[in-house]
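Journal club prep, shared notes

We agreed each person brings one worked example of a sequence with its structure written out as tokens. Mine is Protein kinase domain-containing protein. I'm keeping it raw so we can talk through how to read the token line rather than staring at a rendered picture. Sequence first:
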Amino acid sequence: MKSFSKREADRRTFLEQVRESKENGYLLSSKKIGSGAFSKVYLGYATQEKMMQNYKLASDLRSKRHSMVAIKIISTAEAPVEYTKKFLPREIYSLNVTYKHLNVVSPWGACAGPFALWTGSFTSSTC
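Then the structure, token by token:
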């Protein structure tokens, strides 16, 4: 069972992630859809402002009839330097190479900050 201070720290971290996602044009939900050693993936939504800025994203989401995106949040403070310098760029590159595949999330952006964020759209409206 988590202590009160740990839960409070987790809540503050999540609120900071919500703020950072919103600054980058996405609304982060509390629904976690996956996690890894240094990251968590949440369901999010592209804002109207983001879709007005990014025609390809808007077109992709309109064709899928939803505005859901996956938002992967990597804690750059917790991840080893080797991961953020070597493996994270490789992961983003791999997604960009395979972005047209039906079973792979289409990448739409990456942002650097206290948390590295990258977003991608789902292949269908189910989550």
